[in-house]
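Late entry, evening session. Most of the bench is empty. Finally got around to the prediction I had been postponing all week. Sequence below, unchanged from the version circulated by S.P.
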Amino acid sequence: MDIPEAWEQLAVAEPRGVIMIVGAPDMGKSTLARHLYGRLCAEGRTVAFLDGDPGQSTLGPPATMTLALGLPGEVAFPPGGPQWRRFVGAVSPRGHMLTLVVAAARLAVAAQMAGAETVIYDTTGLVDPAQGGLNLKLAKINLLQPAAVIAIQRDNELEPLLAPLRRGGPARLIELAPSEAVSPRDQLTRQAHRAQQFSRYFSDAHTLSVAWDQMAIFPGPVFAYNQLVALEDPAGFVRGLGILRQADFQKRRVVLHTPLASLADVSALRLGDLAVDPRTYRDQRVMG
């Protein structure tokens, strides 16, 4: 990783708790998050990494948010400890902001219960006020009460969020310039990254038949071909993802392409707003 000197000099001995990293796309948020994770682990902390970007995920498949706990003595990324995952069902926060906020809160609680002293939270790049991006960030700050917010901005794009925080908001504010080593990624590059992540996740997939009348269906049994779905446990955490291949309404069964071996501990099927081609693993929105 190409780390700017200002990032290297960032004091990380404190704070403990959630450290939230915010910024527009192509600012180096994920690079900084991984850098901080390694430094804190090297100090002997118990650190968790919250991959909060369902569009350009680092730890898990797209359309999800993943929390991973670092193991004692570990400094390398990705964390080698247990993981928890929540389903967003889309690759953009737009139209799914409440789902995103709930997922962040549930994962932060899971980290705390697992004994994490610090949670590095790598957020999405949606900051456009007209699209609700800054309000989304503020809602996360108010809910999670992070110990620190690290803001990376280039052209004052975060000012509506940062101005009140500078006057004494609920979190310590740290402001950084972006990394000049970051290369902007266009939409085709981002979609190719998602396809690669989906391909990796479904590499050991097989066919699994699921009786949907034996579990809760969110939002309801209205299925689409190649729709991405999540099989969830009673706590709402993802046990596995699937791509819907068939739906039999007479037998009330669906056939999924999934790496999940069994339905043990699965109590709900949650439908996403994304269709994924199981041959190319390219995604598109489900057409209503």
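Two things to note before I forget:
Residues 188-285 form a domain with the Elongation Factor Tu (Ef-tu); domain 3 fold (CATH 2.40.30.330).
The longest helix spans residues 97-113.
Will write this up properly tomorrow.
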